[in-house]
Amino acid sequence: MKKKLLFLVHRLPYPPNKGDKIASFNLLRFLAARYEVFLGTFIDDPEDRQHLAKLREYCSDLCVVEITPLLARIASLRGLLSGEALSLPYLRSRALYDWTTRVLGEQRPERIVVFSGPMAQYVSGRVPRGAITLFDMVDVDSEKWRSYGERKAWPMSWLYRREADKLLAFERQMASEFDSTVFVSREEAELFRSLAPESAARTTYRIQGVDSAYFDPAGDFADPYPVQASALVFTGAMDYWPNIDAVTWFAEQAFPAVRAKVPNALFCIVGMRPPPEVQRLAERAGILVTGAVPDVRPYLAHAHAAVLPLRIARGIQNKVLEAMAMQLPVIATPGAMTGIQAFAEFEPTVSEDPQVLADAAIRCLTRPRQADLAARRCVLERYDWDANLQRIARLLESGRVESDI
């Protein structure tokens, strides 16, 4: 008989069409093969309701609470009165709390996995005796807010810095309550160890994966680009501010130099829910904003290079792994390459200098398309989901962190 596992996730882990959902779905799939899973989560996109039946295939019980992001943001302002991080009331639900209470009391799960920091509030101080607990923070989320604070003007800079401080205090408290705290890369784990030295011995990392069978350049993909266009591609959810900042910065600082040398150059921004400031980029010569597409693979398969100029980034970026799996040359900032291990013959262009990125793009666009075979070899050897999640399996069986950093 399988042991029971409570799994709390901040966003419905299906479909796996954006970074956090890719990770949480693969973790769910991995856990469901080994445990009887009780899943509690939120829906923040009404279109995701259609996927509940699919999720039930992996769970014995499922609690899903729908939130409206705008109303949740307003509700989160209660944190200003309570003195807590705004992220906590944003993801606070009486229905989910009551369901969690019922699962903890009636099912007595032997394992508890929390995915994303604020979800830890549902089990804090009430873990059944003997249960092994794992806190998958993914990234040091408080540092993301600190980065926002450095780039925004007052009063948002003050609000983001406040969130960073309050959320870090919460992250440290929760890490002290769990048997292990896990991050998406060695770099993120080392950062948290420095920020929360009291939990350093229980802090470790997993490695992100990618579905290399799905992202296979051998597939037959129709060319989605205009005739004679030489494309640079960026993929990612475009309602996420680091992605907005990345494409705007590249469009303004680097792409004009590319177009001056390569008149048919196309910068293609592929991703759901582009806000007005991203849509306006399409008014510029040589920039295409697609919005949501049914499949990003054709855009990767027929591009000359992936341009990933993230200036604010936490952990391993799925968009980098997907481009690598498709054998696409990578032109990126250092933040985008965090957690990508050095690998023989894989030589992406990595720089914060827009001219260096532009020069690399020009080189790729002025020669026939070239596959980066080493990039895919790296993915196959280093970023397989099932192999990398074995570390999670060991943590859930032993409750102890291996000495690996």
Structure, explained:
The chain is α/β, with parallel strands linked by helices and 405 residues long. The chain has two domains: 3-209 and 384-398, Rossmann fold (3-Layer(aba) Sandwich); 230-382, Glycogen Phosphorylase B (Rossmann fold). Helices cover 41% and strands 17% of the residues. It has 18 helices and 13 strands. The protein has helices spanning 19-32, 52-56, 69-76, 78-82, 87-90, 94-107, 141-151, 156-177, 186-195, 241-253, 255-261, 276-279, 297-301, 318-325, 354-365, 373-382, 385-388, 390-398; strands at 3-9, 35-43, 61-66, 111-115, 132-138, 180-183, 203-205, 230-235, 265-270, 287-291, 305-308, 330-332, 349-350. The strands form two sheets. Strands 3-2-1-4-5-6-7 form a seven-stranded parallel β-sheet, sandwiched between helices. Helix 7 (141-151) packs antiparallel against helix 8 (156-177). The model has no long low-confidence stretch (mean pLDDT 95).
